[in-house]
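Figure 3 (text version): structure tokens given as input.
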């Protein structure tokens, strides 16, 4: 059963959280500071927090949408770019540009490498597991992909030519929105929008695939084309996100799972709510890490992993009880 009120409610939540994101932090910025250019807090709002807020919306939407699309295609509720190694493959692409110093001399290579890594990750995941794989096979395929990417990144860390390269790599692995500017927004936005457009284009194919590949093919769905467009769309959205924030996991796992009951279980209908819900989750998490009473700000990727790990475990236990 669908509930049409959930979209306006989610959109209102994102707007409220975006306004709170512009205000909240170590320095509180009240409403009056938004209109007074002479107030030093005006610069904090529009030069520091506005890019961070826009990136939180873009990255959250990209990850939530990618997770919903992967779950719809594979008919597997555990599919997620972060959990199953796609984000790690994107991070590996970015890390290699940092390791070899290409990112310093040719900045555009970093997002290209991250997107390429994510696309390769999606293709490998689908190739290893198969589109109709069992739950165990799919999780194992993700573990394999995660292990390969993790080993390669660990090798880059151990052989890093200098401490600065090591620190840059560690920053990408933990994921954060700290010290981001409008340059990162303009870099990520076109790629995320293009990837999202490709994913939304597949919404009818995803609905048909919920009946199985044979039924979808009989309805005119080109399975090979759908797989390629899915890999490209998820790769663009996830790769662009990792390129500007590093690895932020579990968004694509948590959000579709929470919103699926509101959409009647239809994969195509779940895409837009998951994008909006992902933006809300990342915004809320980013506000919380800014308000954490610690000397250094907690990394956003670490905070979401602390939330997503128990959630993932609870999902596994729930699936095991249903299968038993």
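Below: residues designed for each position.
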């Amino acid at each position: 059963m669908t509930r049409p009120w959930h979209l306006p409610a989610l959109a209102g939540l994102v707007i409220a959280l975006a306004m709170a994101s512009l205000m909240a932090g170590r320095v509180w910025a009240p409403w009056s500071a938004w209109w007074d250019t002479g107030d030093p807090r005006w610069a904090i709002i529009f030069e520091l927090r506005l890019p961070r807020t826009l990136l939180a919306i873009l990255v959250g939407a990209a990850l939530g949408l990618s997770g919903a699309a992967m779950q719809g295609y594979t008919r597997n509720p555990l599919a997620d770019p972060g959990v199953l190694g796609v984000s790690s493959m994107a991070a590996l692409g970015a890390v290699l540009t940092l390791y070899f110093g290409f990112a310093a001399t040719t900045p555009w290579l970093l997002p290209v490498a991250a997107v390429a890594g994510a696309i390769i990750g999606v293709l490998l995941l689908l190739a290893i597991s198969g589109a109709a794989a069992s739950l165990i096979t799919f999780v194992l395929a993700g573990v394999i992909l995660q292990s390969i990417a993790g080993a390669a990144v660990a090798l880059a860390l151990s052989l890093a030519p200098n401490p600065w390269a090591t620190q840059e790599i560690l920053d990408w692995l933990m994921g954060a929105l700290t010290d981001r500017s409008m340059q990162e927004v303009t870099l990520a936005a076109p790629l995320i929008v293009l990837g999202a457009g490709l994913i939304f284009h597949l919404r009818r194919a995803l609905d048909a695939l919920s009946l199985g590949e044979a039924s979808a093919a009989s309805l005119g769905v080109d399975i090979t084309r759908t797989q390629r467009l899915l890999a490209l769309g998820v790769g663009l959205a996830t790769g662009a996100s990792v390129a500007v924030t590093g690895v932020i996991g579990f968004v694509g796992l948590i959000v579709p799972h929470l919103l699926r009951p509101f959409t009647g279980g239809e994969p195509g209908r779940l895409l837009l709510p998951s994008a909006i819900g992902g933006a809300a989750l990342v915004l809320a998490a980013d506000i919380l890490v800014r308000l954490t009473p610690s000397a250094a700000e907690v990394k956003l990727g670490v905070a979401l992993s602390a939330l997503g790990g128990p959630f993932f475990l609870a999902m596994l236990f729930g699936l095991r009880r249903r299968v038993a």
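The radius of gyration is 19 Å.
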